[in-house]
Amino acid sequence: MTEGWQRVGAMSALPSVLRDLGVDPAEVAAAADVELELLADQDSQIPFRSACLLTKVAAERTGCDHIGLLVAAREGSDTHSIGAVGMLMRNAPTLGRALLDLCENHHRYVRGGVPYLVARDGSAWLGYAIYQDPGASAEHFQVGALAVGFSMVKELCQARPVEVLLSRRPPADPQPYRQFFGAPVTFDADQSALVFSTDALALPVVRADPAARQALETQVRDYWAIDLPKVSDQVVRLLRPRVLFTDDRLASVAAALAMHPRVLERALQAEGTSFRAILNHTQVDVAQRLMARTRLSITAIAAALGYADTSAFSNAFRRQTGQSPRVWRTTHLAQGT
């Protein structure tokens, strides 16, 4: 997979948060191998692994587990942090359309994590998932990304989630999380997402300008004019949230890419892989992240990934890794990695 990168965006507020907490941002940046000057420009790009490491080091040096929430609470850490796509969102007719703007254009400025919007059975999940190996614990980065999404929703229409799911163990003090989101927070979840009623997606965006949006749609297509990720990388991005919603069939992913399934398979074969290989890798990757970062049982993880029973999941996991899920988890936790 191509090495990921992250647009600085809302992370530009991190240095001021660190200073307020009595920590030198230059030292934190150096520990993450990031030039501090890059954090002053929201349009700068840094390696995705460095972005994850930066938030991890920041949390450790400050002793502030919820540092991602402090960054997201700063002025400008909302749609204004993502340039033209943010302007497009601010002029969307509804919250749902604005969130789709975010999800559909995210690849323009980030490779390594993916926001997603799933609506079914009266609920809507606005989530954030990491699909690249961050090289370090990414829980603080993931929480920060979700918190920025929360700030965007508040800015657009003041909608409030009915629940917040966080795919991490509970912190020593969960109160800052409840205060920030203003909603029940569930830790040890199978995903990190804001959960809304689907009715919230129809809420109008305040002060949206339809005429401005029409011009912005063209501008966004030309903004950050970059090549699309490889087909295999696009499939990984699409599959990462889908494996938790049993929407990971070849036909579904091919339709999302506007390709015939056979055409998609041929494109993947040309890149030396297959849909089944990517799906198997994605399922194992999600399972490993959940085993490492949450207290979810193996049975619960198997169910989250759509397996009919735990033995089927264990057999599939063993085929991919050479270890059973329980052995992998025990070894991983013992190593502290």
From TrEMBL:
- Keyword Transport among record annotations: no
Q: Name one GO cellular component term.
A: cytosol
Q: Which Pfam families match?
A: Arabinose_bd (PF12625), HTH_18 (PF12833)
Q: Which InterPro entries match?
A: AraC-type_N, Homeodomain-like_sf, HTH_AraC, HTH_AraC-typ_CS, Tscrpt_reg_AraC-type_HTH
TM region positions: none
In what residue span(s) does the HTH araC/xylS-type domain sit?
233-331
Please list the GO terms describing molecular function: DNA-binding transcription factor activity; transcription cis-regulatory region binding
**Can you say what this protein is called?**
AraC-type DNA-binding protein
Q: Which UniProt keywords apply?
A: DNA-binding, Transcription, Transcription regulation
- Which organism's genome codes for this protein? Kaistia soli DSM 19436
